[in-house]
Write a structure and sequence with these properties.
A hairpin with a 4-residue loop joins β4 and β5. It is built from four helices and ten strands; from the N terminus they run αββααββββαββββ. By secondary structure, the chain is α+β, with helices and mostly antiparallel strands. The two termini are about 35 Å apart. A ten-stranded mixed sheet has the order 1-2-3-4-5-6-10-9-8-7. The longest helix has 15 residues. It folds into two domains: about 100 residues; about 80 residues, no CATH class.
């Protein structure tokens, strides 16, 4: 492959990466699709592999409930950080104040999806995380034992508790963060294969 062809391929990958869009959930009151929001690179200089990793993350995350639920009301911004070698971070900010951060470290096959948004009243946090598990690992998930949670104080806050569910594939974990009054303030799914 010539150098010109390599650069053209890299430019195309960069162009594809530059667009991320929110697809609103269609309901009985269907609204027209929201315009795409450009993803802005705010840190680092991506390698060709970094670009491919970020593209794959974006495609996968757009089917995950941690993205689709808050994106139904609109995506405000999308930022990309390229940290160290092989670490890609996507930061989505949603129009109604929620956010989703996705981190992928290719070296250790680590992926973390950390979200904070208001859950619709008909959604249970365990069901949303189970949907995220299936989105990440397929229909069989990663073997999370939903009936065997562990509750502990959150490491970085005295006012929050974390309910942790563990799986038997890729050290996967699902975490629900709650305030003292029981209100859900965060959801996380992470794994390292």
């Amino acid at each position: 492959m010539s150098r010109a062809t390599s650069l053209l391929t890299l430019c195309r990958a960069g162009f594809l990466l530059a667009t991320c869009s929110a697809t609103p959930a269609l309901t009985g009151n269907a609204t027209p699709p929201l315009p795409p929001v450009s993803c802005t690179v705010v840190e680092g200089k991506p390698s060709a592999q970094d670009l491919l990793t970020a593209q794959a993350l974006q495609r996968n995350i757009k089917t995950c409930p941690l993205y689709t639920i808050p994106a139904a009301n609109g995506l405000a911004s999308c930022r990309i950080r390229y940290q160290d070698d092989a670490v890609v971070v996507l930061e989505y900010q949603f129009k109604e104040g929620g956010w989703l951060h996705v981190k992928r470290d290719q070296r250790i096959e680590y992926t973390e999806q950390n979200a904070s948004f208001t859950l619709p009243s008909n959604q249970k946090p365990e069901a949303v995380l189970a949907g995220a598990e299936r989105s990440a690992f397929g229909d069989t998930g990663c073997g999370i034992a939903w009936r065997e949670p562990e509750t502990r104080p959150a490491e970085n806050s005295n006012n929050l508790t974390e309910t942790v569910f563990r799986g038997d594939v890729c050290n996967c974990q699902a975490v629900i963060r709650r305030q003292a009054d029981g209100r859900v303030v965060g959801l996380m799914l992470k794994s390292a294969c």
